[in-house]
Specification:
Chain A: This is Peptide/nickel transport system ATP-binding protein. Chain A: It comes from Nocardiopsis algeriensis. Chain A: GO terms for molecular function: ATP binding; ATP hydrolysis activity. Chain A: Keywords: ATP-binding, Nucleotide-binding, Transport. The complex is a heterotrimer of chains A (about 325), B (about 300) and C (about 300). Chain A contains 10 helices and 12 strands. With about 325 residues, chain A is α/β, with parallel strands linked by helices. Chain A has a single domain, classed as 3-Layer(aba) Sandwich (Rossmann fold). In chain A, the strands form 2 sheets. An 8-stranded mixed sheet of chain A has the order 6-7-8-3-9-10-12-11, sandwiched between helices. Chain B has a domain at about 90-295: MetI-like (MetI-like fold, Orthogonal Bundle), CATH 1.10.3720. The relative contact order of chain B is 0.15. Chain C is globular and about 65 Å long. The relative contact order of chain C is 0.15. The chains are: A alpha/beta (about 325), B mainly alpha (about 300), C alpha/beta (about 300). Chains in contact: A-B, A-C, B-C.
């Protein structure tokens, strides 16, 4: 088991109180698994991705544990996390493309970064060239400045850098959202390739785009308002979702080939609850057509069939 | 999608939390010692400059007392070597100093923001022309021009001095405002205002300017402080208002009549300290404001 | 109703306009009343520039944009522009940046009132606003008197559509209006566009998402590097894409029930027939060829 997250609670501190961004998140990630982490804005998916590697100054670890390859990940301890980053856990943040230092050539930047991580740049040079080639980049990119690269190229550079030390876990946060569809496909496919070649053991791919994650992920976990609502294989989530939220979400997505005349799709009425003072029980109950009295208690995430977890009183 | 898909509860806390912005700014303002100290000193001196002259029943340049008197109960700050009351000069000088700050800073602010807004909003050729003008004025050695102009000008009143300071010190404000306006002019709500049939000046004043009000306030404060310094410099080299009183002129005559050599500290310290304290507290105030308005500088 | 004739847009870049960048190349298309036309393209395709030119926010470098027979580039003066915006309105991509954050959201209605209907009484105006909000299916209590950050993206976009409905609009330019909305609410805004179409509005729907363009539109225009690659009735363009670029796009778009591998396999099993593409005689023009009725292909740009 690569990653085991148990009842993780991370809150944001604000002037008006704590925002319960992650409120008891539990899941396992197997060796070699690519898990798509999907949900709408504000559901906590980005926070979960960040929590696995670095808490920013407003984030507070309230409870729960994270285990990676059997070892505890001390996320609240900034110092103890340093040796883990890049070596064990790596993150490609949402705005990675713009995070490249514009005044440094790519090659120079990689060298500095490796030195800062206590790795001799010469020792990984061959591997670096091999991997750049693998994602379809010429070695020449090392002599270029970030501004000379297109968005897709930059994203691939960031991908190569963040996996150079073969981390156990890679967290990719909306890495393809800003790309055009054709580049998006290329980047997504190289990520799968990286897993296949063992450059990373397993991956959490955070995205709002279910149809993209369906293309590349083994499993999909859907979050809603700080809770996990459902996790199953990608096929099951898309074709036979059990949780009412997942069902409504999937049926709200127009597809290539579907038109309004063939049948009108419907959205989900209402909006997610505020997380500053979240409601008790199931957080979807106010928008859920199936809600009943029991929903004022929080439904546990249970395995309803092998490999398929859902948190709903109606599916349990 | 990217920036909405950010941290959870985005709607609750960040971004356009406009309604909260006012009270939030106030929250930080009340806890910001730099702002409170700076503002306190500036307001204190301003009040002194406004009120105290009413309690002085003679002309500040009148020779009324003993010559070269050290501070005592009657002449709180002593007298000059001609017997002028330094306290009277000081409070009138403060008043003049604030006036020159408001005139000079105000003129520079009006020109600077007008040029900046038009250049930033209109863009294109208008921007290029205004930018060129700005750069020309920017590289002019302002003090030299001021010396030449004021030296030849017949009337050397406070007001004229302010106007000339204003005319030479606006360029950096124009550049700062331009860059801000440039980024705001591309916001969708500005386009939407155009689609609502709004006129240009209305868009600038009601859509763009309010969104950079903190920026404008800070620019004005810096221009204000700058004008005070320039005026003091001009006064000190003898190009101040012919018949007026100002902290710079006091300093000039103190030095000119050898207050330093004769150890008459009460003559040169009040004006020198006055100018330094006003300008320094303006800058401290500005740093404080920056911390209040700019969330990145806030210490949690 | 709206007709673009050989529209070009060339940006000057660099100091004093030394360099040139071609954003829109020889685009001609029409939008009829009651018709939704999707402008589909990746970044740099010129789709948003086209939308902004129709809204009069940019001027075309060359070509004509005719609205009900009048070339809008000849519109001069504030009063004439105001009249144009009475009939042509836009909604933009980012709902949060479409509202001035320091004012309440319903101020966008007031702006319309003060420019176009200064004489309307308070009660009458309130009725009109409630009516427009009803059309976009918003509960007035939820949106009136609120600041933009208190509303969701979907609500804000609907407020903006309601704003446009207060005018006597005939054409709506919807520039990526749902790309920043959450999946569960975007479909409602799309459905709303189709309601407006029923009322006889022409809609120019700018999008980068092929599945969205497909869902709502009658006609699709696929743009690449400023020029039209393919244009035709939506059903034909999606069922029988003729241009290699459109085929490539369709094979890359992630679909919910078919994986890329499945799509590739299908394509390999029934390879589509190639059509002969027109050749541009120079760097500037971009001719189209009509392959079947109303279905055009454009030049190949590599």
């Amino acid at each position: 088991m690569t990653l085991r997250v148990n009842d993780l609670k991370v809150y944001y501190q604000t002037l008006r109180g704590d925002v319960h961004a992650l409120d008891g998140v539990t899941f396992d990630l197997a060796d070699g698994e690519i898990m798509g982490l999907a949900g709408e804005s504000g559901c906590g998916k980005t926070t979960l991705g960040k929590s696995l590697i670095r808490l920013d100054s407003r984030m507070k670890h309230v409870g729960g544990t994270i285990e990676l390859d059997g070892k505890n990940v001390p996320i609240a301890d900034e110092k103890a996390m340093v040796p883990l980053r890049y070596h064990e856990i790596s993150l490609i943040p949402q705005y990675a493309m713009s995070a490249l230092n514009p005044t440094r050539k790519i090659g120079r930047m990689i060298k500095d970064l490796m030195k800062a991580r206590g790795v001799d740049p010469a020792s990984i040079e061959d591997e670096l060239h091999r991997r750049l080639e693998l994602v379809g980049l010429e070695q020449d990119v090392l002599n270029r400045f970030p501004i000379e690269l297109s968005g897709g190229m930059k994203q691939r550079v960031v991908m190569v850098i963040s996996t150079l030390l073969n981390p156990s876990l890679l967290i990719a946060d909306e890495v393809t959202s800003a790309l055009d569809v054709s580049t998006q496909r290329a980047v997504a496919e190289s990520m799968v390739e990286f897993r296949d070649r063992g450059f990373v053991k397993s991956m959490v791919f955070v995205t709002h785009d279910l149809s993209l994650v369906y293309q590349m992920a083994d499993t999909i976990m859907v979050m809603y308002a700080g809770h996990v609502v459902e996790k199953a294989s990608a096929k099951t989530i898309v074709n036979e979702p059990k949780h009412p939220y997942t069902q409504m979400l999937i049926s709200a997505l127009p597809e290539v080939g579907s038109t309004e005349e063939q049948g009108r799709l419907e959205g989900i009425p209402g909006k997610p609850p505020g997380l500053l003072d979240p409601p008790t029980g199931c957080r979807f109950k106010d928008r859920c057509p199936l809600a009943f009295s029991k929903c004022s208690e929080r439904p546990p995430l249970v395995e309803i069939e092998p490999g398929h977890w859902a948190a709903c009183w109606k599916t349990g | 999608m990217s920036n909405v898909a950010g941290a959870p509860g985005t709607a609750e806390k960040s971004d356009g939390a406009a309604a909260k912005r006012g009270s939030e700014a106030l929250h930080y303002a009340r806890r910001n010692p730099k702002l409170l100290i700076g503002l306190g000193i500036v307001l204190g001196l301003l009040l002194l400059g406004i009120i105290a002259p009413f309690f002085v029943d003679h002309d500040p340049n009148e020779y009324i007392g003993p010559q070269g008197q050290a501070p005592d109960g009657e002449y709180w700050m002593g007298t000059t070597s001609f017997g002028q009351d330094i306290w009277a000069q000081f409070v009138y000088g403060l008043r003049a100093t604030f006036l020159i700050g408001i005139f000079g800073g105000g003129v520079a602010f009006v020109i600077g923001t007008a040029v900046g807004f038009v250049a930033g909003y209109k863009g294109g050729i208008i921007d290029e022309i205004l930018n060129m003008l700005t750069n020309v004025v920017l590289v002019l050695p302002a003090l030299v021009v001021l010396i030449v102009v004021t030296a030849y000008l017949e009337v050397r009143g406070l007001f004229v001095q302010g106007v000339f300071i204003g005319l030479t010190s606006w360029p950096w404000a124009a550049r700062a405002v331009r860059s801000q306006a440039l980024s705001l002019a591309n916001r969708d709500y500005v386009d939407l205002a155009r689609l609502s049939g709004r006129r240009t000046w209305k868009i600038i004043t009601s859509e763009i300017a309010p969104n950079m009000s903190s920026y404008l306030v800070m620019s004005f404060i810096l221009l204000f402080g700058g004008a005070i310094l320039i005026a003091a410099g001009l006064d000190f080299i003898g190009l101040g208002p012919s018949n007026g009183v100002s902290l710079g002129l006091m300093l000039e005559s103190a030095v000119g009549w050898g207050a330093l050599q004769r150890g008459m500290w009460w003559w040169f310290i009040p004006p020198g300290l006055g100018i330094t304290v006003i300008v320094a507290s303006l800058y401290i105030l500005n740093v404080g404001l920056d911390e209040v308005f700019n969330p990145k500088l806030r210490e949690l | 109703m709206l007709e673009l004739k050989n529209v070009h847009k060339v940006y000057r870049v660099g100091a004093f306009g030394g360099g040139r960048k071609r954003a829109v190349r020889d685009v001609s298309l029409t939008v009829e009343p009651g018709e939704v036309v999707s402008l589909i393209g990746e970044s740099g395709s010129g789709k948003s520039t086209l939308g902004k030119m129709v809204l009069g926010l940019f001027r075309p470098t060359e070509g004509q944009i005719l609205f009900e027979g009048t070339d809008i580039t000849t519109i001069k003066g504030h009063a004439a522009r105001k009249e144009y915006y009475r009939h042509v309105q836009g909604v933009f991509q980012d709902p949060f940046s479409s509202f001035n954050p320091i004012f309440k959201a319903d101020r966008v209605f007031e702006m319309i009132r003060s420019t176009y209907y200064p004489g309307v009484s308070d009660a009458d105006w309130k009725d009109r606003v409630l009516d427009a909000l009803g059309t976009v299916r918003l509960d007035p209590d939820n949106v009136l008197n609120k600041y933009p950050h208190q509303l969701s993206g979907g609500q804000l976009q609907r407020v903006l559509i309601a704003r446009a409905l207060l005018l006597d609009i005939k054409l709506l330019v919807a520039d990526e209006i749902i790309s920043m909305l959450d999946a569960s609410t975007r479909i409602d805004v799309l459905n709303l566009l189709s309601d407006l179409k029923e009322r006889g509005l022409g809609i120019l729907f700018v999008t980068h998402d092929l599945s969205l363009g497909n869902y709502v539109s009658d006609k699709s225009v696929i743009l690449r590097k400023g020029a039209i690659a393919e244009m035709g009735p939506t059903a034909r363009v999606f069922e029988n894409p003729l241009h290699p670029y459109s085929r490539h796009l369709l094979s890359c778009v992630p679909q919910l029930h078919r994986t890329w591998a499945e799509v590739d396999a299908e394509l390999a099993a029934n390879p589509p027939e190639d059509v002969e593409l027109p050749v541009a005689p120079d760097e500037e023009s971009a001719p189209l060829v009509e392959v079947e009725e109303g279905h055009f292909v454009g030049i190949n740009q590599g």
